[in-house]
Amino acid sequence: MEDKKCQSGRFRRLVSRLIVVAGLALSACGGGGADSDLAVSFTPIDIGFNLWESGSFTPSIGGLGGNTPNCSMSSGSVPPGMVLESRGCRLHGVPMTPGTWGGTMVLTVDGYKGSLSTSARFGVVGPHVVGTGYNDGDLAVAWGGAPFSLNPAVRISGSFPLRSGDQVSYTLVSSLPPGVSFDTSTGALSGSTDLPPNARFGVAVTATVTRGNLSITTATGGVGVVVRIPGFQYDKKFDYPWAGPFQANPTALSLPPGASVSYSLAANYVLPPGISLDPQTGIISGMAEDFTPNSSRYWGANVIRTLVTPTGEVFTATIVMWPSLVVPYFAFRIDDPDYNIQRFRFVHDQAFQTDAPLPVNALPGDTYSTFRLASSVPAWFTINANTGALSGTPPASAVSTQGRLLDFGVTITRNGRTRNAGGQALYVVN
User: Fold this and answer.
1) CATH of the domain spanning 239-326, picked from 1.10.510.10, 2.60.40.10, 2.120.10.30, 1.20.1730.10
2) CA dist list (Å): 288 to 227, 310, 367
3) Among residues 145, 202, 244, 346, which one has the fewest Cβ atoms lying within 10 Å of its Cβ?
4) pLDDT category, 41, cuts 50, 70, 90?
5) 277 has a pLDDT exceeding 70
6) CA-CA distance, 306 to 260, in Å (whole number)?
7) Does the structural domain 329-429 have CATH classification 3.40.50.1980?
Protein backbone atom coordinates (compact mmCIF):
# COMPACT_ATOMS: atom_id res chain seq x y z
CA MET A 1 0.00 0.00 0.00
CA GLU A 2 1.23 3.49 -0.80
CA ASP A 3 2.42 5.73 2.01
CA LYS A 4 -0.55 7.63 3.41
CA LYS A 5 1.16 10.97 2.81
CA CYS A 6 0.99 10.22 -0.94
CA GLN A 7 -2.82 9.93 -0.87
CA SER A 8 -3.59 13.60 -0.36
CA GLY A 9 -2.00 16.77 -1.68
CA ARG A 10 -2.45 20.18 -3.26
CA PHE A 11 -2.76 20.76 -6.99
CA ARG A 12 -1.63 24.16 -8.30
CA ARG A 13 -3.17 25.80 -11.28
CA LEU A 14 -0.94 25.87 -14.33
CA VAL A 15 -0.10 29.33 -15.73
CA SER A 16 2.09 28.39 -18.67
CA ARG A 17 3.28 25.36 -20.60
CA LEU A 18 6.69 25.75 -19.03
CA ILE A 19 5.17 25.49 -15.55
CA VAL A 20 3.17 22.42 -16.61
CA VAL A 21 6.27 20.52 -17.50
CA ALA A 22 8.20 21.68 -14.46
CA GLY A 23 5.34 21.12 -12.07
CA LEU A 24 4.66 17.55 -13.11
CA ALA A 25 8.31 16.78 -12.84
CA LEU A 26 8.65 18.19 -9.35
CA SER A 27 6.50 15.83 -7.33
CA ALA A 28 4.55 12.61 -7.83
CA CYS A 29 2.51 13.31 -4.71
CA GLY A 30 1.14 16.74 -5.63
CA GLY A 31 2.43 20.28 -5.50
CA GLY A 32 2.25 22.78 -2.71
CA GLY A 33 2.75 26.38 -1.89
CA ALA A 34 0.88 29.59 -1.55
CA ASP A 35 -0.64 29.41 -5.03
CA SER A 36 -2.24 25.94 -4.54
CA ASP A 37 -5.86 25.77 -5.72
CA LEU A 38 -7.05 22.21 -4.93
CA ALA A 39 -6.55 20.14 -1.77
CA VAL A 40 -7.32 16.66 -3.17
CA SER A 41 -7.63 13.38 -1.27
CA PHE A 42 -7.41 9.98 -2.98
CA THR A 43 -8.74 7.05 -0.93
CA PRO A 44 -7.01 3.62 -1.22
CA ILE A 45 -9.07 1.17 -3.31
CA ASP A 46 -10.12 -2.37 -2.38
CA ILE A 47 -13.12 -3.59 -4.35
CA GLY A 48 -14.50 -6.97 -5.42
CA PHE A 49 -16.43 -8.18 -8.45
CA ASN A 50 -18.12 -11.45 -9.44
CA LEU A 51 -16.80 -13.38 -12.40
CA TRP A 52 -18.94 -12.98 -15.57
CA GLU A 53 -21.12 -10.29 -14.01
CA SER A 54 -21.14 -6.66 -15.10
CA GLY A 55 -19.53 -4.38 -12.53
CA SER A 56 -18.71 -0.72 -12.15
CA PHE A 57 -16.68 1.32 -9.69
CA THR A 58 -15.56 4.95 -9.33
CA PRO A 59 -12.97 5.72 -6.65
CA SER A 60 -13.63 8.17 -3.84
CA ILE A 61 -11.83 11.43 -4.58
CA GLY A 62 -12.31 14.55 -2.48
CA GLY A 63 -11.47 18.18 -3.01
CA LEU A 64 -11.80 18.30 -6.80
CA GLY A 65 -13.71 21.57 -6.75
CA GLY A 66 -15.93 20.46 -9.62
CA ASN A 67 -13.05 19.35 -11.84
CA THR A 68 -13.00 15.95 -13.55
CA PRO A 69 -10.05 13.73 -12.58
CA ASN A 70 -7.94 11.49 -14.79
CA CYS A 71 -6.70 8.08 -13.65
CA SER A 72 -4.25 5.52 -14.92
CA MET A 73 -2.41 2.48 -13.60
CA SER A 74 1.28 3.26 -13.14
CA SER A 75 1.86 -0.36 -12.11
CA GLY A 76 -0.24 -3.50 -12.20
CA SER A 77 -3.47 -3.83 -14.17
CA VAL A 78 -7.24 -4.07 -13.94
CA PRO A 79 -9.09 -7.43 -14.27
CA PRO A 80 -9.31 -8.83 -17.81
CA GLY A 81 -12.65 -7.83 -19.32
CA MET A 82 -12.73 -4.52 -17.43
CA VAL A 83 -11.64 -1.07 -18.57
CA LEU A 84 -10.37 1.90 -16.57
CA GLU A 85 -11.60 5.07 -18.27
CA SER A 86 -8.89 7.68 -17.96
CA ARG A 87 -11.33 10.59 -17.97
CA GLY A 88 -13.46 10.30 -14.78
CA CYS A 89 -11.59 7.29 -13.35
CA ARG A 90 -14.52 4.85 -13.80
CA LEU A 91 -13.69 1.15 -13.85
CA HIS A 92 -16.34 -1.01 -15.58
CA GLY A 93 -16.89 -4.13 -17.62
CA VAL A 94 -17.44 -7.87 -17.19
CA PRO A 95 -14.50 -9.57 -15.46
CA MET A 96 -13.56 -12.76 -17.27
CA THR A 97 -10.81 -14.18 -15.07
CA PRO A 98 -10.91 -14.84 -11.31
CA GLY A 99 -8.06 -13.65 -9.16
CA THR A 100 -6.57 -10.53 -7.63
CA TRP A 101 -5.48 -7.59 -9.75
CA GLY A 102 -4.38 -4.03 -9.14
CA GLY A 103 -1.25 -2.04 -8.34
CA THR A 104 -0.82 1.72 -8.14
CA MET A 105 -3.39 4.13 -9.53
CA VAL A 106 -2.27 7.68 -10.38
CA LEU A 107 -4.60 10.70 -10.33
CA THR A 108 -4.13 13.97 -12.25
CA VAL A 109 -6.41 16.95 -12.90
CA ASP A 110 -6.51 18.85 -16.22
CA GLY A 111 -5.11 22.36 -15.87
CA TYR A 112 -3.28 21.59 -12.63
CA LYS A 113 0.22 20.41 -11.99
CA GLY A 114 1.26 17.45 -9.84
CA SER A 115 -0.28 14.00 -9.26
CA LEU A 116 -1.49 11.70 -6.50
CA SER A 117 -1.14 7.94 -6.26
CA THR A 118 -2.82 5.28 -4.16
CA SER A 119 -2.93 1.52 -3.86
CA ALA A 120 -5.63 -0.28 -5.85
CA ARG A 121 -6.80 -3.87 -5.36
CA PHE A 122 -9.45 -5.50 -7.55
CA GLY A 123 -10.64 -8.97 -6.56
CA VAL A 124 -12.65 -11.15 -8.92
CA VAL A 125 -14.51 -13.95 -7.15
CA GLY A 126 -14.86 -17.12 -9.17
CA PRO A 127 -16.17 -20.56 -8.24
CA HIS A 128 -14.26 -22.84 -5.91
CA VAL A 129 -15.06 -26.14 -4.29
CA VAL A 130 -15.81 -26.47 -0.57
CA GLY A 131 -17.06 -29.29 1.63
CA THR A 132 -20.47 -29.31 3.26
CA GLY A 133 -19.32 -30.24 6.77
CA TYR A 134 -19.74 -27.90 9.73
CA ASN A 135 -17.75 -24.76 8.83
CA ASP A 136 -16.55 -26.73 5.81
CA GLY A 137 -14.94 -29.24 8.16
CA ASP A 138 -14.98 -33.01 8.05
CA LEU A 139 -18.06 -35.02 7.27
CA ALA A 140 -18.71 -38.23 9.20
CA VAL A 141 -19.92 -41.71 8.34
CA ALA A 142 -20.77 -44.53 10.70
CA TRP A 143 -18.35 -47.34 11.32
CA GLY A 144 -19.43 -50.87 10.68
CA GLY A 145 -20.41 -50.85 7.02
CA ALA A 146 -23.69 -49.00 7.53
CA PRO A 147 -24.92 -47.42 4.26
CA PHE A 148 -24.59 -43.66 4.05
CA SER A 149 -25.49 -40.85 1.67
CA LEU A 150 -23.86 -37.44 1.95
CA ASN A 151 -25.79 -35.36 -0.57
CA PRO A 152 -24.01 -33.21 -1.42
CA ALA A 153 -20.58 -33.81 0.03
CA VAL A 154 -19.05 -30.91 -1.91
CA ARG A 155 -20.49 -27.80 -3.49
CA ILE A 156 -19.59 -24.49 -5.07
CA SER A 157 -18.90 -21.91 -2.37
CA GLY A 158 -21.72 -19.49 -1.75
CA SER A 159 -19.28 -16.60 -2.22
CA PHE A 160 -19.70 -17.19 -5.96
CA PRO A 161 -23.43 -16.85 -6.69
CA LEU A 162 -24.67 -19.51 -9.08
CA ARG A 163 -27.35 -18.24 -11.44
CA SER A 164 -30.40 -19.95 -12.86
CA GLY A 165 -29.25 -22.05 -15.79
CA ASP A 166 -25.69 -22.52 -14.56
CA GLN A 167 -24.45 -26.07 -14.94
CA VAL A 168 -22.00 -27.65 -12.51
CA SER A 169 -20.17 -30.92 -12.96
CA TYR A 170 -17.44 -32.45 -10.84
CA THR A 171 -14.38 -34.50 -11.69
CA LEU A 172 -12.95 -36.82 -9.06
CA VAL A 173 -9.19 -36.43 -8.77
CA SER A 174 -8.64 -38.69 -5.76
CA SER A 175 -9.25 -42.36 -5.07
CA LEU A 176 -12.06 -43.58 -2.81
CA PRO A 177 -12.23 -46.56 -0.44
CA PRO A 178 -13.89 -49.72 -1.80
CA GLY A 179 -17.67 -49.48 -1.62
CA VAL A 180 -17.77 -45.67 -1.75
CA SER A 181 -18.88 -43.82 -4.89
CA PHE A 182 -19.03 -40.17 -5.96
CA ASP A 183 -21.75 -38.66 -8.17
CA THR A 184 -20.08 -36.21 -10.55
CA SER A 185 -23.36 -34.46 -11.36
CA THR A 186 -24.57 -33.79 -7.80
CA GLY A 187 -21.43 -33.89 -5.65
CA ALA A 188 -22.95 -36.67 -3.53
CA LEU A 189 -20.91 -39.30 -1.73
CA SER A 190 -22.60 -42.61 -0.93
CA GLY A 191 -22.06 -46.29 -0.19
CA SER A 192 -20.46 -47.96 2.81
CA THR A 193 -16.96 -48.59 4.06
CA ASP A 194 -15.16 -51.16 6.15
CA LEU A 195 -12.47 -48.72 7.24
CA PRO A 196 -11.64 -48.92 10.97
CA PRO A 197 -12.92 -46.41 13.55
CA ASN A 198 -11.34 -42.95 13.36
CA ALA A 199 -9.97 -43.63 9.88
CA ARG A 200 -10.21 -40.75 7.43
CA PHE A 201 -10.37 -40.47 3.69
CA GLY A 202 -10.49 -37.48 1.42
CA VAL A 203 -12.61 -36.56 -1.56
CA ALA A 204 -10.69 -34.24 -3.90
CA VAL A 205 -12.47 -32.88 -6.96
CA THR A 206 -12.47 -30.10 -9.50
CA ALA A 207 -15.69 -28.44 -10.60
CA THR A 208 -16.58 -27.11 -14.02
CA VAL A 209 -19.13 -24.29 -14.07
CA THR A 210 -20.80 -23.46 -17.38
CA ARG A 211 -22.89 -20.35 -18.00
CA GLY A 212 -24.08 -20.07 -21.58
CA ASN A 213 -20.96 -20.12 -23.76
CA LEU A 214 -18.68 -19.40 -20.80
CA SER A 215 -16.99 -22.15 -18.85
CA ILE A 216 -14.35 -22.39 -16.13
CA THR A 217 -12.79 -25.25 -14.17
CA THR A 218 -11.85 -24.64 -10.54
CA ALA A 219 -8.73 -25.57 -8.67
CA THR A 220 -8.89 -28.81 -6.72
CA GLY A 221 -10.99 -28.68 -3.57
CA GLY A 222 -12.83 -31.20 -1.47
CA VAL A 223 -13.67 -32.50 1.95
CA GLY A 224 -12.39 -34.96 4.52
CA VAL A 225 -14.54 -37.83 5.78
CA VAL A 226 -14.02 -39.46 9.17
CA VAL A 227 -15.33 -42.88 10.18
CA ARG A 228 -16.92 -42.59 13.61
CA ILE A 229 -18.19 -45.03 16.18
CA PRO A 230 -21.90 -44.10 16.29
CA GLY A 231 -23.43 -43.00 19.57
CA PHE A 232 -26.57 -44.60 20.92
CA GLN A 233 -29.85 -43.61 22.47
CA TYR A 234 -32.94 -45.41 23.68
CA ASP A 235 -36.25 -45.16 21.87
CA LYS A 236 -38.11 -44.41 25.11
CA LYS A 237 -37.61 -42.32 28.19
CA PHE A 238 -37.09 -44.28 31.37
CA ASP A 239 -40.62 -43.62 32.63
CA TYR A 240 -41.61 -46.97 34.08
CA PRO A 241 -45.35 -47.68 34.42
CA TRP A 242 -46.06 -49.28 37.77
CA ALA A 243 -46.63 -53.02 37.31
CA GLY A 244 -46.96 -52.50 33.55
CA PRO A 245 -44.88 -53.84 30.67
CA PHE A 246 -41.92 -51.72 29.63
CA GLN A 247 -39.28 -52.10 26.94
CA ALA A 248 -36.70 -49.60 25.69
CA ASN A 249 -34.45 -50.48 22.75
CA PRO A 250 -31.01 -48.97 22.07
CA THR A 251 -30.06 -47.56 18.69
CA ALA A 252 -29.40 -50.38 16.25
CA LEU A 253 -25.70 -50.94 15.52
CA SER A 254 -24.27 -52.56 12.40
CA LEU A 255 -21.27 -54.68 13.34
CA PRO A 256 -18.63 -55.98 10.93
CA PRO A 257 -17.50 -59.60 11.25
CA GLY A 258 -15.31 -60.14 14.28
CA ALA A 259 -16.66 -57.17 16.28
CA SER A 260 -18.64 -57.49 19.49
CA VAL A 261 -20.82 -55.28 21.66
CA SER A 262 -22.03 -55.56 25.24
CA TYR A 263 -24.03 -53.45 27.68
CA SER A 264 -23.69 -52.97 31.42
CA LEU A 265 -24.57 -50.65 34.28
CA ALA A 266 -21.95 -48.43 35.85
CA ALA A 267 -20.68 -49.57 39.23
CA ASN A 268 -22.83 -48.84 42.31
CA TYR A 269 -26.00 -48.41 40.25
CA VAL A 270 -28.94 -50.76 39.78
CA LEU A 271 -32.13 -50.77 37.78
CA PRO A 272 -35.50 -50.44 39.54
CA PRO A 273 -36.96 -53.67 40.96
CA GLY A 274 -38.64 -55.69 38.23
CA ILE A 275 -36.51 -54.11 35.45
CA SER A 276 -33.50 -55.76 33.81
CA LEU A 277 -30.83 -55.02 31.19
CA ASP A 278 -29.93 -57.57 28.53
CA PRO A 279 -26.12 -57.40 28.31
CA GLN A 280 -26.04 -58.63 24.69
CA THR A 281 -28.83 -56.54 23.13
CA GLY A 282 -28.94 -53.59 25.53
CA ILE A 283 -32.73 -53.89 25.79
CA ILE A 284 -34.14 -52.64 29.10
CA SER A 285 -37.44 -54.33 29.96
CA GLY A 286 -39.70 -55.74 32.66
CA MET A 287 -42.46 -54.61 35.02
CA ALA A 288 -41.44 -52.05 37.61
CA GLU A 289 -42.40 -52.58 41.23
CA ASP A 290 -42.71 -49.70 43.68
CA PHE A 291 -39.47 -47.73 43.98
CA THR A 292 -38.33 -44.24 44.87
CA PRO A 293 -37.22 -42.74 41.52
CA ASN A 294 -34.75 -40.22 42.94
CA SER A 295 -32.94 -42.78 45.07
CA SER A 296 -29.20 -42.54 44.56
CA ARG A 297 -29.23 -46.17 43.42
CA TYR A 298 -31.40 -45.38 40.38
CA TRP A 299 -31.11 -41.63 39.73
CA GLY A 300 -28.36 -40.84 37.21
CA ALA A 301 -27.43 -44.48 36.58
CA ASN A 302 -25.32 -45.05 33.48
CA VAL A 303 -25.82 -47.67 30.81
CA ILE A 304 -22.42 -48.36 29.22
CA ARG A 305 -22.05 -49.79 25.74
CA THR A 306 -18.68 -51.45 25.16
CA LEU A 307 -17.70 -52.09 21.56
CA VAL A 308 -14.70 -54.19 20.56
CA THR A 309 -13.47 -53.96 16.96
CA PRO A 310 -12.14 -56.95 15.03
CA THR A 311 -8.61 -55.69 15.76
CA GLY A 312 -9.22 -55.48 19.51
CA GLU A 313 -9.79 -51.73 19.89
CA VAL A 314 -12.28 -50.91 22.66
CA PHE A 315 -14.75 -48.02 22.48
CA THR A 316 -17.33 -47.11 25.12
CA ALA A 317 -20.38 -44.85 25.09
CA THR A 318 -22.69 -43.96 27.95
CA ILE A 319 -26.37 -43.13 28.43
CA VAL A 320 -27.50 -41.47 31.67
CA MET A 321 -30.89 -42.61 33.02
CA TRP A 322 -33.24 -40.40 35.03
CA PRO A 323 -36.04 -42.83 35.89
CA SER A 324 -39.56 -42.09 37.02
CA LEU A 325 -42.35 -44.32 38.30
CA VAL A 326 -45.60 -43.65 36.46
CA VAL A 327 -48.41 -44.46 38.87
CA PRO A 328 -52.16 -44.32 38.20
CA TYR A 329 -54.39 -41.81 39.94
CA PHE A 330 -57.86 -40.30 39.57
CA ALA A 331 -58.72 -36.70 38.78
CA PHE A 332 -61.91 -34.72 38.20
CA ARG A 333 -60.03 -32.49 35.81
CA ILE A 334 -57.62 -33.99 33.28
CA ASP A 335 -57.72 -31.42 30.47
CA ASP A 336 -54.92 -29.49 32.16
CA PRO A 337 -52.14 -31.82 33.33
CA ASP A 338 -50.61 -29.12 35.53
CA TYR A 339 -53.84 -28.52 37.48
CA ASN A 340 -55.63 -31.74 38.36
CA ILE A 341 -57.44 -30.58 41.51
CA GLN A 342 -60.97 -29.58 40.64
CA ARG A 343 -62.93 -27.09 42.81
CA PHE A 344 -66.63 -27.80 43.51
CA ARG A 345 -69.21 -25.46 45.05
CA PHE A 346 -71.92 -26.75 47.37
CA VAL A 347 -74.81 -24.42 48.24
CA HIS A 348 -76.82 -24.63 51.48
CA ASP A 349 -80.03 -26.70 51.18
CA GLN A 350 -79.25 -27.62 47.54
CA ALA A 351 -78.34 -31.11 46.36
CA PHE A 352 -75.18 -31.35 44.27
CA GLN A 353 -73.33 -34.26 42.65
CA THR A 354 -70.08 -34.25 40.68
CA ASP A 355 -69.20 -36.35 37.69
CA ALA A 356 -67.09 -39.43 38.32
CA PRO A 357 -63.34 -38.86 38.43
CA LEU A 358 -61.32 -40.34 35.57
CA PRO A 359 -58.21 -42.50 35.74
CA VAL A 360 -54.88 -41.01 34.67
CA ASN A 361 -51.95 -43.22 33.56
CA ALA A 362 -54.30 -46.16 33.27
CA LEU A 363 -53.46 -49.29 31.27
CA PRO A 364 -55.79 -51.69 29.49
CA GLY A 365 -56.96 -54.36 31.91
CA ASP A 366 -56.76 -52.19 35.04
CA THR A 367 -59.64 -52.74 37.50
CA TYR A 368 -60.75 -50.47 40.34
CA SER A 369 -62.84 -51.07 43.44
CA THR A 370 -64.12 -49.35 46.56
CA PHE A 371 -63.79 -45.58 46.22
CA ARG A 372 -63.48 -44.16 49.71
CA LEU A 373 -62.84 -40.85 51.40
CA ALA A 374 -59.44 -40.51 53.01
CA SER A 375 -60.22 -37.15 54.70
CA SER A 376 -62.72 -36.34 57.42
CA VAL A 377 -65.86 -34.72 55.94
CA PRO A 378 -69.21 -33.53 57.27
CA ALA A 379 -71.96 -36.13 57.70
CA TRP A 380 -73.88 -34.78 54.68
CA PHE A 381 -70.91 -35.39 52.32
CA THR A 382 -70.66 -38.80 50.56
CA ILE A 383 -68.66 -40.55 47.84
CA ASN A 384 -70.03 -43.21 45.51
CA ALA A 385 -68.07 -46.37 46.29
CA ASN A 386 -68.41 -47.63 42.68
CA THR A 387 -67.77 -44.45 40.65
CA GLY A 388 -66.04 -41.99 42.97
CA ALA A 389 -68.63 -39.24 42.33
CA LEU A 390 -69.00 -36.77 45.21
CA SER A 391 -72.42 -35.64 46.39
CA GLY A 392 -74.28 -34.00 49.25
CA THR A 393 -76.81 -31.41 50.38
CA PRO A 394 -75.30 -29.09 52.97
CA PRO A 395 -78.00 -28.00 55.48
CA ALA A 396 -78.47 -24.34 56.34
CA SER A 397 -76.54 -24.98 59.53
CA ALA A 398 -73.52 -26.33 57.63
CA VAL A 399 -70.37 -24.35 58.25
CA SER A 400 -69.41 -22.23 55.26
CA THR A 401 -65.89 -22.67 53.89
CA GLN A 402 -63.99 -21.03 51.09
CA GLY A 403 -62.05 -24.12 50.21
CA ARG A 404 -61.35 -27.44 51.80
CA LEU A 405 -59.08 -30.14 50.41
CA LEU A 406 -60.23 -33.72 50.56
CA ASP A 407 -58.43 -36.93 49.60
CA PHE A 408 -60.08 -40.02 48.24
CA GLY A 409 -58.72 -43.43 47.46
CA VAL A 410 -59.49 -46.45 45.32
CA THR A 411 -57.86 -49.85 44.99
CA ILE A 412 -56.36 -50.58 41.57
CA THR A 413 -55.46 -54.06 40.41
CA ARG A 414 -52.94 -54.45 37.58
CA ASN A 415 -51.30 -57.67 36.45
CA GLY A 416 -52.04 -59.34 39.77
CA ARG A 417 -50.73 -56.46 41.87
CA THR A 418 -52.81 -53.98 43.89
CA ARG A 419 -52.20 -50.36 44.79
CA ASN A 420 -54.11 -47.40 46.22
CA ALA A 421 -54.68 -45.04 43.29
CA GLY A 422 -56.19 -42.08 45.15
CA GLY A 423 -56.99 -38.51 44.10
CA GLN A 424 -57.91 -35.07 45.46
CA ALA A 425 -60.61 -32.40 45.15
CA LEU A 426 -61.47 -29.01 46.64
CA TYR A 427 -64.97 -28.12 47.81
CA VAL A 428 -66.57 -24.87 48.89
CA VAL A 429 -69.71 -24.40 50.96
CA ASN A 430 -71.56 -21.07 50.89
Assistant:
1) 2.60.40.10
2) 39, 37, 18
3) 202
4) very high
5) yes
6) 8
7) no
